[in-house]
């Protein structure tokens, strides 16, 4: 029997054990970079808005982040005060206000991405180039699939 399919004393395979570790591993990843909670919130907000299909409102941001609207509003207000976001009239419904990244917001998002890549490269320094790229491709794919899954659930 291969190591990957071997069972432990509780009858669970090592595959089950590693799959059970996905949630905690993703939680650890989220806590590691960027360095501060302020950066974590900003990065999340900027990415959600930039990655949105179409227009993004504060309510949509709250739903996407999994927080109540007042939390999203405070985070948006902080990003606006720092010049990272602006409010604009909806192109489809002039009564609605949507969120957009400013040039400074785009630059901050790029800075976060650069910082995260540097940290990724430091953490995976002992990995081969092939391992690094394979993991990066799978992680990006997982993120895209998670977004699609979330959108499908929201429609149902």
Describe the structure.
With 156 residues, the protein is mainly α. Helices cover 65% and strands 6% of the residues. It is built from seven helices and two strands, in the order αααααββαα. The protein has helices at 14-20, 22-32, 37-51, 58-65, 69-81, 103-123, 129-155; strands spanning 85-89, 97-101. α3 (37-51) packs across α6 (103-123) and α4 packs across α5 (69-81).
Helix-strand makeup class: mainly alpha
Fraction of helical residues: 55-70%
% residues in beta strands: 5-15%
SSE sequence, one letter per element? HHHHHEEHH
Large-scale geometry? globular
Q: What's the quaternary structure here?
A: single chain
Largest sheet, spatial ordering of strands: 1-2
What gap, in angstroms, lies between the N and C termini? 42 Å
Write the layout of secondary structure elements.
Layout (H helix, E strand, L loop, with lengths): L13 H7 L1 H11 L4 H15 L6 H8 L3 H13 L3 E5 L7 E5 L1 H21 L5 H27 L1
Antiparallel strand pairs: 1-2
Helix pairs in contact: 3-6, 4-5
């Amino acid at each position: 029997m291969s190591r990957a399919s071997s069972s432990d004393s509780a009858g669970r395979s090592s595959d089950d054990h590693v799959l059970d570790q996905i949630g905690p591993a993703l939680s650890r990843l989220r806590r590691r970079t960027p360095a501060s909670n302020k950066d974590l919130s900003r990065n999340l907000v900027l990415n959600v808005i930039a990655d949105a299909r179409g227009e993004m409102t504060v309510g949509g941001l709250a739903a996407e982040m999994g927080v109540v609207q007042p939390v999203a509003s405070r985070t948006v207000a902080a990003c606006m005060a720092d010049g990272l976001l602006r409010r604009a009239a909806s192109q489809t419904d002039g009564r609605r206000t949507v969120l957009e990244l400013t040039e400074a917001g785009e630059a901050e998002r790029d800075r976060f991405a650069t910082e995260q890549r540097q940290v990724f490269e430091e953490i995976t320094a002992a990995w081969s180039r092939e391992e690094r790229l394979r993991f990066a491709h799978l992680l990006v794919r997982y993120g895209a699939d998670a977004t699609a899954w979330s959108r499908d659930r929201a429609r149902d």
